[in-house]
């Protein structure tokens, strides 16, 4: 029996590679999460900034709560079954009137898994639209192989390697317009990207990348998984993570550091350069 998604939405996920929009929290709750985020950005600038944006859920309680939000997790269960672990999270922030963008890419390319078929919820904490630089999905492209990506390390490209698929048929592009508190869900193999934020407000999206069943294995490097629901994974670098009881709970801060080092080793394997995110 389905918990959150409809059969039609599941069909859309399989046919097009994404679903959108789905409400996760109310608009006012989303704005409260944004305020908490901005408070900790000021309080702990070393821990949370444009370069330190990975796995914030490991040491910030309000983001841990979002990673375990029952609407998100129930939607994941509808797609992948009852045994669920989270690979990592990324806070994608585009500052007002900035040049930052995300080039056409497929998430699974550098994640080092033995499969590319896994869902990523992306939760909007601010309006995400054509003006602020929402994500655009190339409908149906998750059915293609993983394309060759060129690593550009371009200054304004906020992907790790600035990786790009050079030729994309943009005619199949679908813009995912989200209000604060809504999410989209996209497949690990779908081609997607996003343009700069031309507005006078920040565009913030929390990407829960990705929820996976134990059938999907890490074959490059070693990841520290966040256990979410059902059977616990056995391949979590020997670590069972503590959840933060409050922001910057010290045990969890050191765990995040190790998790991010592991993540970086996976994402930059074989790359000529390594950025700090
Ligand atoms: O936030 C963005 O604009 C892009 C995010 C993205 O590529 C992802 O979550 O997979």
If you had to describe this structure to a student in words, what would you say it looks like?
By secondary structure, the protein is an alpha+beta fold. The protein has a single domain, classed as Sandwich (Jelly Rolls). The chain is built from five helices and 14 strands. Strands 1-10-5-12-3 form a five-stranded antiparallel sheet. Strands 4-11-6-9 form a four-stranded antiparallel sheet, with no helix packed on it.
Blueprint (SSEs and pairs):
Blueprint: H1 7-16, E1 18-23, H2 27-43, H3 61-67, H4 70-80, E2 84-86, E3 89-94, E4 102-106, E5 119-124, E6 135-138, E7 150-151, E8 163-164, E9 173-175, E10 182-187, E11 191-194, E12 203-208, E13 211-212, E14 226-229, H5 250-267
Antiparallel strand pairs: 1-10, 2-13, 2-14, 3-12, 4-11, 5-10, 5-12, 6-9, 6-11, 7-8
This protein binds 2-oxoglutaric acid.
> What is the CATH topology descriptor?
Jelly Rolls
User: Which class best fits the helix and strand makeup?
Assistant: alpha+beta
Helix content: 10-25%
State the fourth-level CATH superfamily: q2cbj1_9rhob like domain
Q: For the record, what CATH class applies?
A: Mainly Beta
Overall outline: globular
Radius of gyration: 17 Å
Helix tally equals 5
Mean pLDDT: 96
> CA-to-CA gap between the ends?
39 Å
In this entry the ligands are: 2-oxoglutaric acid
Give the amount of beta strand, in percent.
15-25%
Strand order of the largest sheet: 1-10-5-12-3
For the sheet with most strands, the description reads: 5 strands, antiparallel
Sequence of secondary-structure elements? HEHHHEEEEEEEEEEEEEH
Could you tell me the number of beta strands? 14
């Amino acid at each position: 029996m389905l918990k959150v998604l409809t059969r039609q939405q599941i069909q859309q996920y399989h046919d097009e590679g994404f679903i959108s929009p789905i409400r996760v929290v109310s608009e006012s709750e989303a704005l409260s999460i944004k305020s908490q985020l901005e408070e900790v950005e000021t309080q702990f600038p070393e821990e949370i900034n444009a370069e330190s944006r990975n796995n914030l859920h490991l040491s910030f309680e309000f983001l841990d709560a979002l990673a375990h939000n029952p609407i998100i997790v129930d939607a994941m269960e509808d797609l992948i079954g009852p045994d669920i672990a989270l690979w990592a999270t990324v806070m994608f922030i585009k500052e007002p009137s900035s040049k930052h963008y995300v080039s056409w890419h497929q998430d699974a390319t550098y994640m080092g898994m033995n499969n590319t078929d896994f869902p990523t919820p992306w939760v909007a904490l601010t309006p995400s639209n054509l003006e602020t630089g929402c994500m655009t999905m190339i409908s149906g492209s998750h059915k293609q192989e993983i394309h060759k990506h060129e690593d550009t390390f371009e200054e304004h490209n906020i992907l790790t390697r600035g990786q790009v698929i050079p030729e994309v048929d943009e005619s199949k592009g679908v813009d995912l317009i989200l209000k604060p508190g809504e999410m989209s869900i996209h497949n690990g193999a779908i081609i997607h990207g996003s343009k700069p934020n031309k507005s006078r407000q920040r565009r913030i999206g929390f990407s829960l990348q990705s929820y996976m069943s134990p059938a999907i294995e890490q074959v490059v490097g070693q990841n520290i998984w966040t256990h979410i629901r059902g059977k616990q994974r056995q391949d979590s670098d020997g670590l069972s993570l503590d959840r933060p009881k409050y922001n910057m709970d010290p045990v969890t801060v050191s765990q995040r550091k190790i998790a991010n080092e592991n993540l970086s080793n996976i994402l930059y394997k074989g790359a000529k350069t390594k950025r700090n995110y």
